[in-house]
Specification:
Mean pLDDT of chain B: 92
Strand content of chain B: under 5%
Number of domains of chain B: 2
CATH architecture of the largest domain in chain B: Orthogonal Bundle
Number of strands of chain B: 0
Helix content of chain B: over 70%
Largest interface: A-B, 25 and 38 residues
Strand content of chain A: under 5%
Number of helices of chain A: 5
Structural class of chain B: mainly alpha
Distance between the termini of chain B: 55 Å
Number of strands of chain A: 0
Structural class of chain A: mainly alpha
Order of helices and strands of chain B: HHHHHHHH
Shape of chain A: elongated
Radius of gyration of chain B: 19 Å
Oligomer: heterodimer
Mean pLDDT of chain A: 82
CATH class of the largest domain in chain B: Mainly Alpha
Largest sheet of chain A: none
Low-confidence stretches of chain A: none
Low-confidence stretches of chain B: none
């Protein structure tokens, strides 16, 4: 019983142990450190961008994507370039290339 | 210098105004962070983070509340983020140790001694801080702001953006939980 009362008293005293606490003071060099931190953050924007781009998780997919796009474009244009003889005729007639009068004209000396 | 004048000057990028703000409120920020984090290095780090954020986001400060209330809010939020990051790291190190990987060694947190406590209360205060550290986040913040920073319930409600009755309820639950934790501590000690 006495023990329980003693524990109870100790609990109460512990709960009151922060009464009259004084404010803790920070470092006197705090402002200098904050300034250095702000300057570091300003400078580090481009280095952060470079670090981000050069990350393997970013760089590898970017390279693969570029190769894929290039391959797709290459095959797309290649298939378009396969021309039939009719296409050539249409093209020639559109630009009057079938007209060979130019070869018939003679240059007078 | 007037608070509003300082804010205006800082918005214009005035370094002297920023220095004045840091020098005036640095102990408020540091002491709050120290109470929540219970580690001097972490509190110093968070204090720097708080003022960096103040510098970067002063333009968004609408001055609807006092500058000190805004500072308390940023400090509490940064300190809680810091605590969560630390807990995540600790959990990760624990999982790594289970799989036998050579992660960081888990070190038991040492007793925290607040520098502003009188010598004859140091031992009891260390026990109380250990118990405070085990409280749920909201109760911990309310209790720390009240006991370590001496804020009234009204001021705490402004910082926590809640009603005074909610703060009263948080404080009541915090005290009950602390009593239970301290009873356990002293009974186990016997």
């Amino acid at each position: 019983m006495n023990n329980k009362k003693r524990i109870q008293e100790e609990v109460e005293k512990t709960l009151e142990s922060l009464d009259g606490i004084e404010r803790a003071g920070s470092s006197p060099y705090l402002f200098t450190r904050i300034k250095a931190r702000l300057e570091k953050e300003e400078k580090s924007f481009w280095s952060m961008a470079l670090t981000f781009i050069s990350r393997p998780s970013v760089a590898v997919p970017a390279i693969v994507l570029t190769i894929l796009i290039n391959t797709a474009i290459f095959f797309e244009f290649r298939s378009e370039r396969v021309q039939t003889p009719q296409d050539e005729e249409v093209f020639a007639s559109e630009y009057n290339l079938s007209d060979n009068t130019i070869y018939e004209s003679t240059i007078e000396p | 210098m007037d608070e509003q004048f300082l804010i205006e000057k800082l918005r214009q990028g005035d370094e002297a105004a920023f220095r004045e703000i840091v020098e005036t409120w640095k102990n408020l920020v540091y002491n709050t962070a120290l109470g929540i984090l219970q580690n001097a290095e972490d509190a110093e780090d968070v204090t720097q983070e708080v003022f960096v954020q103040v510098f970067e986001s002063i333009k968004t400060f609408k001055a609807e509340s006092k500058l000190s209330t805004w500072l308390y809010r940023i400090t509490v939020s940064k300190a809680l983020d810091h605590l969560r990051r630390k807990k995540r790291k600790k959990r990760f190190a624990y999982i790594q140790s289970l799989f036998g990987a050579g992660g960081e060694t888990i070190i038991e947190k040492p007793d925290f001694n607040h520098p502003g406590i009188a010598l004859d209360n140091k031992e009891r205060a260390a026990i109380l801080f250990k118990a405070i550290d085990r409280l749920p986040e909201n109760q911990k913040i309310a209790f720390t702001l009240h006991k370590v920073e001496g804020l009234s319930y009204q001021e705490i409600s402004d910082v926590m953006k809640t009603s005074v009755s909610s703060v009263e309820s948080l404080m009541h639950r915090a005290k009950n939980n602390l009593k239970k934790l301290l009873l356990d501590h002293y009974q186990n000690k016997e």
